[in-house]
Predict the structure.
Amino acid sequence: MSDSDVIPSETQAVIKLAMKEAMKSRDKERLATIRLMQAEFKRIEVDERIVLDEARVLAVLDKMLKQRRDSQKQYEDAGRDDLASQEASEIAVIQEYLPAQLADDELDAIIDAAIAAADGSGMQAMGAVMGQLKPQLQGRADMGAVSQKVKARLVG
């Protein structure tokens, strides 16, 4: 598959429009976060010589969100509320471009279906189950929490 075969990401297009709106409204904090997202997309495209598809864009945003949450927690633990609030505002902007998070009952149903479809049982099925869930849930659920839920169900 060549670069011309890749469908451009709709999320990237929406983020570009949001950047223009942030410039017009002179919203510096929002603009800075959007520029961080754009820079990360560009870095990956240049480094890997690819055009990002929608799934990869969502994975990048998910990773950025996780990094911000980790930083926010570290800043709060260190008593740096100013930096923690900056991370919180970046988290809010990034979350706008990710799909809505699944409710716990929806997530549990998807996990149960994946476990039922997996060959094998116990922890040997963990990789197969997670491999099946990741494309379905990327950006829609915290994959760390999903992993813990899968492990609890496979063990218990």
